[in-house]
Amino acid sequence: xxxxxxxxxxxxxxxxxxxxxxxxxxxxxxxxxxxxxxxxxxxxxxxxxxxxxxxxxxxxxxxxxxxxxxxxxxxxxxxxxxxxxxxxxxxxxxxxxxxxxxxxxxxxxxxxxxxxxxxxxxxxxxxxxxxxxxxxxxxxxxxxxxxxxxxxxxxxxxxxxxxxxxxxxxxxxxxxxxxxxxxxxxxxxxxx
Length: 192
Known about the structure:
Elements: H1 3-32, H2 35-42, H3 46-51, H4 56-81, E1 89-92, E2 99-102, H5 104-116, E3 121-131, E4 134-143, H6 149-166, E5 173-180
Parallel strand pairs: 4-5
Antiparallel strand pairs: 1-2, 3-4
Helix pairs in contact: 5-6
């Protein structure tokens, strides 16, 4: 989900939440007998309000509300569930002077394979995503709790520097998330 989509989602949730809160507060105030709310309700034309479902346009209004709600919900879900895929980046080839296209998903898998060789690493998962508009190689590493954190961090930083050199002037971030297994958890065979 992009930053803009997240902001739109939060705005929609805020508006709907405030609307529901207001309607609920109004109903509770009426039930508790708050004088001003009782006075507002007394000004309603009850005969007009109860006859609304018998109007010719009522069925069309309900159908339009249902169709509008379904369309709005579908569009919102489509925006929320769009994959944050990264576009390939063009890297200049120094020897030929041409550009080489690099698939960031494959590059993320390469980073994952490099980190998987580190002693104590049990499992890695990699993907390339757009994180707030920035192409990001995201690698999740699951490791033994006794792993040398300082050396693993240096290795991760060295690989991130290699990625930055590889993609040239393109802005690509490398994110390594390290999860340590519990100390009492036995090592799992990665081939099974």
